[in-house]
């Protein structure tokens, strides 16, 4: 007799433990997800390597990426912007102090808060490698340094004229893919990055990432070896091509990204297919430890902090207390599902279509309207139809 | 964007052109200065004088005095280190009245733009080439040709490119591009390609050598047409004279071309505004450049505006001709090296193995060159005495003296063989021929490097003569052949061929008159602009030919 009573009690206790463990697992997954990406700060190194007026589009490329990156939250102190020539104040610019990225002067990417760190002849291979590896003379100001640590996600964007295995700097020197790979290895050994996203928009850009061998690097290029990256559209008033195709479509893609966006790297790989770009963009993910599907765009392009608001005071003095036990003691559903707060009220800043929200019951007005319609129907056609319903 | 888009500017331009349609007698210096200043340019003038060695009957001038006027449009934001030039020659007759109007209209339009990174110089030069030479010499502080000019007051920096405009009507049917410059120099091919690209973009018909392009390259007619165009270019380049005002810029390594408007009987006419747009586009392109044009070829021949023959293709043809001479010389060297055959009985005298030496042939060489010097200097120097004794004008006197000295040289061998020591020997003429062949090879080689067309044309006629001539050939026939292959007759043939290619064939008397005028122009070009064709022919090629003539009459 006691057994019959014992078994259900045992089952009940088991069920209870099961529930708690299940609950604690979900908390752990949430906790692991909190520390998933592993980075705590974001940096960007944006380089335009070509000078001369007819390379206007390279400067426009870099400035449009700069603009997106700043909009998504990376501050100027964490961006190293290198422009090899001054297009906005070039004597040949019919619209001085502007750099346009869309024809008919739709979008001025120069603006009035552009902070260029390396300008003109300072953009050299040596300076670029010194910025990456951190071997700068002590007199270099902070704005010219890449002060990243082992928890930094760095976005590196290069554009200019390139070839099979090299990128031309300033019409006088080149950086080879081997040098670049070695620089990244130095960065890895000095623990200067957590994860690196490398984007290059030049002819035969894929050759530049072929030699990478350090972990945690993801690379994208605008064209394969043997292909040329093409420019997008000329503006007849300014007289030059304004953007390159890959960066143009990249900019369009980034304009839809907001700081809370959940778009991942697989979407980025789909930017500018061959039909739009004429060249075949390529990417390389074998050195990257995470699955690209789980990597958010904002992990590299934005400076997103994961914030969780709590109204409880957290007791930090006794570290030995397991949070699992705490939840098992307290039976009340304190275990409401935790979610991250929207950092920015997105719907107010970016006028987008609101995403799929929970179903709301209709408004009182609509409810009353329908009631009226139903009453009128039954009044007109008689109450006897009600019996078909009930 | 551009001139066409603004109706006000279009009206201003058309009104300016109508006003300028009235004939301009001489150069309206004050009016031009005032108009240019009203458009916001910095205006300066330069006066020059030059006395030609003898009167020029083609252009009817002898003592030339003129004024150049130029206005500088300063780049709004750039330092004043580089410049572009747009020039329009203004002559006493009406042949270029519209160009000055277009120039002033463009100046007004350019002044209101802010994207100029180089200064633009709008030049109106008087007496076309002479004025241009004076301006260029003043700008670069040189004095090559002995011209008298006032120094330039205003300067704009190093000139990167220049365009010269020749328009005689306010509507045109096509634009002709003229590339050949002084001494056969050509501008960078990029400039020609730029012009052609813009013509196609704007839809203006453009030609080269005055001939339209044909699309059918694989038919026989298309091929002949292309060959004719190329031959015209070869002849124009060989003449060594600048065929447009741009030709004098090339000496200073400034890429320049002339654009000439042609109004023929076609239906579709282009007005001055479209030409203005074309020029505006070209200038904007040149403005965007950061270096001098140097990427494309400097040595080329163009069968049409879309095709060119580069130096790598045409130089081997000349190389093969020069090889003939060298092989012949090698053959003679070997012959001279082996001693003569001893006769069977051993009683024949053995020639001394050593040749008479080079010194024995020094006499014919010196005498030939003295004749050449006479041909170079005497015609101009002795024109006064000739005019006293004969009822001819100075120009005719000069030309006829030149022809007389040329023909007198034919009589030399009969008179000078008395002075030759090594005469009568078999070795003598061989040594002379060896020297002549090597001399000719070096001469033609150097000429072809500088002016390929001239070198090639001379090579075609002189190489067969030089290779084949020996004293043992039938004298009369060979003499006739030699005369027909001499440089003078080559010039005559070229004149006739040129007229044929221009589709304006001339009869024999007309051709002869043309030939005489060509000789006088050659002498004038040399003294006015420093063209090298006349001294080359008189001082070097003609003595070489005389050496060959001496060999023929060797006794």
Automatic annotation (TrEMBL), chain A:
* Pathway named in the protein's UniProt entry: Glycolipid biosynthesis; glycosylphosphatidylinositol-anchor biosynthesis
What positions does UniProt annotate as the active site of this protein?
161, 203
**Any single GO BP term:** attachment of GPI anchor to protein
Q: Which GO terms describe its cellular component?
A: GPI-anchor transamidase complex
> What Gene3D superfamilies does the record point to?
3.40.50.1460
Provide the leader sequence positions. Answer: 1-24
Give the keywords, sorted. GPI-anchor biosynthesis, Membrane, Signal, Transmembrane, Transmembrane helix
Molecular-function annotations in GO: GPI-anchor transamidase activity
Q: Name one Pfam family in it.
A: Peptidase_C13
Transmembrane spans: 364-382
- Family according to the record: Belongs to the peptidase C13 family.
The record's subunit annotation is: Heteropentamer. Part of the GPI-anchor transamidase complex, consisting of PIGK, PIGT, PIGS, PIGU and GAA1. Interacts with GPAA1. Interacts with PIGT; this interaction, via a disulfide link, stabilizes the expression of GAA1 and PIGK and links them to PIGS.
- Which named protein is this? GPI-anchor transamidase
Write down the species.
Pygocentrus nattereri (Red-bellied piranha)
> Its encoding gene is what?
PIGK
UniProtKB/TrEMBL annotation, chain B:
Source organism per entry reads: Pygocentrus nattereri
Q: Which gene encodes it?
A: GPAA1
Q: List all membrane-crossing ranges.
A: 297-327, 436-469, 476-498, 532-554
Name the UniProt record assigns to this protein:
GPI-anchor transamidase component GPAA1
Record keywords, A-Z = Disulfide bond, Endoplasmic reticulum, Glycoprotein, GPI-anchor biosynthesis, Membrane, Transmembrane, Transmembrane helix
GO BP annotations listed? attachment of GPI anchor to protein; GPI anchor biosynthetic process
Q: Where is it chiefly localized? A: endoplasmic reticulum
Membrane topology is: Multi-pass membrane protein
Q: Give Gene Ontology CC terms.
A: GPI-anchor transamidase complex
**Job description of the protein:** Component of the glycosylphosphatidylinositol-anchor (GPI-anchor) transamidase (GPI-T) complex that catalyzes the formation of the linkage between a proprotein and a GPI-anchor and participates in GPI anchored protein biosynthesis. Binds GPI-anchor.
- Kindly indicate whether the keyword Endoplasmic reticulum belongs to this entry: yes
State the pathway, as annotated in the record: Glycolipid biosynthesis; glycosylphosphatidylinositol-anchor biosynthesis
């Amino acid at each position: 007799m006691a057994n019959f009573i014992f078994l259900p009690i045992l089952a009940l206790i088991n069920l209870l433990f099961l529930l708690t463990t299940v609950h604690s697992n979900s908390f752990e997954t949430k906790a692991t997800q909190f520390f998933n990406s592993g980075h705590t700060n974001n940096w960007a190194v944006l380089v335009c390597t070509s000078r001369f007026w007819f390379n206007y589009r390279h400067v426009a490329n870099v400035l449009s990426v700069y603009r997106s990156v700043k909009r998504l939250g990376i501050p100027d102190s964490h961006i190293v912007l290198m422009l090899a020539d001054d297009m906005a104040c070039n004597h040949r610019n019919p619209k001085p102090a502007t750099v346009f990225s869309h024809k008919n002067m739709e979008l001025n990417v120069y603006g009035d808060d552009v902070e260029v760190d390396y300008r003109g002849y300072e953009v050299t291979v040596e300076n670029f490698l010194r910025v990456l590896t951190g071997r700068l003379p002590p007199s270099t100001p902070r704005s010219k340094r890449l002060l990243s640590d082992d928890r930094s996600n760095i976005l590196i964007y290069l554009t200019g004229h390139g070839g099979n295995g090299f990128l031309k700097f300033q019409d006088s020197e080149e950086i080879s893919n081997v040098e670049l790979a070695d620089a990244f290895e130095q960065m890895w050994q000095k623990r200067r990055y957590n994860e690196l996203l490398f984007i290059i928009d030049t002819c035969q850009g894929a050759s530049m990432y072929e030699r990478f061998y350090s972990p945690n690097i993801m690379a994208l290029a605008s064209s394969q070896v043997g292909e040329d990256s093409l420019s997008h559209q000329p503006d007849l008033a300014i007289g030059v091509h304004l953007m390159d195709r890959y960066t143009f479509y990249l900019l369009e893609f980034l304009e839809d990204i907001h700081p809370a966006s959940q778009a991942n790297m697989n979407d980025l790989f789909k930017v500018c297919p061959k039909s739009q770009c004429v060249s075949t963009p390529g990417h390389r993910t074998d050195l990257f430890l995470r699955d690209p599907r789980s990597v958010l765009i904002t992990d590299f392009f934005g400076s997103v902090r994961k914030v969780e608001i709590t109204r409880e005071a957290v007791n930090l003095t006794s570290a030995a207390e397991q949070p699992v036990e705490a939840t098992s003691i307290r039976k009340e559903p304190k275990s409401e599902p935790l979610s991250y707060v929207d950092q920015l009220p997105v719907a107010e800043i970016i006028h987008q279509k609101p995403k799929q929200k929970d179903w709301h019951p209709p408004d009182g007005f609509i409810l009353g309207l329908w009631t009226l319609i139903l009453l009128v129907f039954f009044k007109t056609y008689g109450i006897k139809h009600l019996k078909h319903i009930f | 964007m551009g001139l066409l888009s603004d109706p006000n500017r279009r009206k201003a331009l058309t009104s300016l052109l109508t006003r300028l349609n009235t004939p301009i007698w001489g150069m309206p210096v004050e009016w031009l200065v005032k108009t240019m200043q009203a458009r916001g340019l910095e205006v300066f003038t330069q006066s020059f004088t030059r006395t030609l060695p003898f009167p020029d009957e083609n252009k009817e001038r002898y003592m030339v005095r003129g004024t150049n006027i130029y206005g500088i449009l300063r780049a709004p934001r750039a330092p004043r280190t580089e410049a572009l030039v747009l020039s329009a020659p203004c002559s006493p007759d009406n042949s270029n009245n519209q160009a000055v109007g277009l120039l002033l209209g463009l100046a007004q339009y350019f002044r209101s733009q802010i994207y100029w990174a180089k200064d633009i110089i709008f030049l109106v030069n008087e007496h076309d080439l002479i004025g241009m030479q004076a301006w260029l010499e003043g700008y670069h502080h040189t004095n090559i040709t002995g011209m008298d000019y006032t120094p330039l007051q205003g300067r704009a920096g190093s000139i990167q490119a220049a365009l010269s405009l020749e328009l005689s009507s306010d509507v045109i049917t096509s634009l002709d591009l003229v590339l050949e410059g002084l001494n056969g120099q050509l501008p960078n091919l990029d400039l020609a390609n730029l012009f052609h690209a813009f013509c196609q973009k704007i839809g203006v018909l453009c030609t080269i050598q005055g001939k339209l392009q044909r699309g059918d390259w694989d038919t026989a007619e298309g091929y002949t047409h292309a060959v004719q165009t190329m031959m015209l270019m070869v002849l124009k380049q060989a003449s060594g004279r600048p065929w447009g005002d741009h030709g004098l810029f090339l000496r200073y390594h400034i890429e320049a071309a002339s654009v000439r408007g042609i109004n023929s009987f076609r239906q579709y006419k282009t007005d001055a505004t479209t030409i203005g747009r074309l020029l505006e586009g070209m200038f904007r392109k040149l403005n965007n450049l950061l270096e001098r044009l140097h990427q494309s070829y400097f040595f080329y021949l163009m069968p049409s505006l879309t095709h060119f023959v580069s130096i790598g293709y045409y130089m081997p043809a000349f190389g093969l001709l020069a090889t003939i001479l060298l092989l012949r010389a090698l053959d003679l060297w070997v012959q001279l090296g082996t001693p003569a055959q001893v006769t069977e009985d051993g009683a024949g005298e053995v020639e001394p193995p050593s040749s008479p030496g080079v010194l024995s042939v020094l006499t014919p060489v010196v005498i030939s060159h003295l004749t050449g010097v006479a041909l170079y200097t005497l015609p101009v120097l002795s024109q006064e005495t000739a005019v006293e004794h004969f009822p001819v004008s100075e120009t005719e006197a000069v030309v006829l003296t030149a022809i007389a000295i040329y023909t007198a040289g034919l009589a030399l061998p009969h008179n000078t063989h008395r002075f030759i020591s090594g005469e009568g020997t078999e070795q003598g003429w061989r040594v002379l021929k060896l020297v002549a062949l090597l001399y000719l090879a070096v001469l033609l080689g150097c000429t072809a490097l500088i002016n390929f067309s001239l070198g090639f044309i001379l090579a075609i006629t002189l190489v067969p003569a030089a290779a084949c001539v020996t004293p043992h050939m039938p004298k009369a026939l060979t003499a006739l052949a030699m005369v027909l292959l001499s440089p003078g007759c080559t010039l005559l043939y070229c004149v006739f061929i040129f007229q044929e290619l221009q589709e304006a064939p001339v009869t024999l008397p007309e051709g002869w008159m043309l030939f005489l005028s060509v000789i006088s122009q050659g002498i004038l070009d040399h003294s006015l602009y420093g063209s090298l064709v006349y001294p080359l022919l008189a001082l070097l090629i003609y003595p070489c030919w005389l050496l060959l003539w001496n060999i023929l009459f060797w006794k």
